[in-house]
Specification:
By secondary structure, the protein is α/β, with parallel strands linked by helices. 42% of the residues lie in helices and 15% in strands. Belongs to the MGMT family.
Length: 282
């Protein structure tokens, strides 16, 4: 059964907007213009669990229970970085290197960027890379032409070419859930040393787990830097591979996301459902 992620996102958006009265599955399906049976089948095919069960993973209570864990050994965090598990999810090791001042200077003049488009369970992405690693990955919500313009705006003087290479192809395979054999992914990012430090810590947060800005600040050895950590997380140029969607507020509130709060909720719930389904095999 085909799954339009926009319908998934709209369902989550509708439930969130009407949370006080807890709309029924039938009401959500009606809002989407679908039958209840069709929506349930479509959603289960996408998430692997029912819509109502999925919503439990988005509750404040669930989020708070996860972030209160002091280590990443709980069952929902079983799909760890650098491993494969019974559910078929492969989490490669992510290496992060910052661009040199010369590479960043003057709008990245002289850089040759190769880009491809890739499908994912959460919508299409544009993925760009230099000769040293992936430098950019963003959801192409406004269409491909708009995505290319945004990439060019991020690297104004770089030369862009739509062309698969070893780096963007590895990333695309991971996004398409076909990452078997991809043991590592290299990122080559325009960033400050502090941003690189935060992002390196963030890629260690396993699939299915959540952290907070305060926990990240503690983990980099600066408990008073939670605001600066928040700014670094918000500047993440590589969707999914640097999992900024796994950072929530200490209150358990999911919070904002560059590519939409409903997409953040969808990714969090999807990852939790996936890892919960394979805890005995990870």
């Amino acid at each position: 059964m085909d799954c339009n992620f926009e319908q998934i996102a709209e369902a989550i958006r509708y439930v969130e907007a009407n949370k006080p009265r807890q709309p029924s599955l039938a009401e959500v399906a009606s809002h989407l213009g679908l039958s209840q049976l069709y929506f349930q089948h479509m959603f289960t095919a996408w998430a692997g669990i029912s819509f109502n069960r999925f919503l439990e993973f988005l509750s404040v209570g669930y989020a708070k229970r996860v972030v209160e864990e002091e280590n990443f050994s709980r069952p929902v965090a079983a799909c760890t970085t650098g491993s494969s598990c019974a559910c078929g999810l492969h989490a490669p090791v992510v290496h992060i290197d910052g661009m040199t001042p010369d590479e960043c200077r003057g709008g990245a003049a002289g850089l040759q960027l190769h880009y491809v488009f890739s499908q994912s369970p959460f919508g299409e992405l544009i993925v760009a890379s230099t000769g040293k690693g992936v430098c950019y990955a963003a959801f192409a919500d406004g269409g491909r032409e708009a995505a290319i313009r945004s990439l060019q705006a991020a690297f104004p003087l770089a030369t862009l070419q739509e062309h698969p290479d070893v780096h963007n192809t590895c990333a695309a395979r991971i996004f398409q859930l076909d990452g078997t054999g991809v043991d590592e992914v290299r990122l080559h990012l325009k960033a400050t040393p502090f941003q690189v430090k935060v992002w390196k810590e963030l890629v260690e947060v396993p699939v299915g787990h959540l952290t907070t800005y305060l926990q990240l600040a503690h983990s980099i050895g600066n408990a008073r830097a939670s605001r600066a950590v928040g700014r670094a997380v918000a500047c993440n140029p590589v969707a999914l591979l640097i999992p900024c969607h796994r950072v929530i507020h200490s209150s358990g509130r999911i919070g904002n996301y560059h590519w939409g709060p409903e997409r953040k909720a969808a990714i969090i719930g999807w990852e939790a459902a996936l890892c919960t389904s394979c805890t005995t095999g990870c």
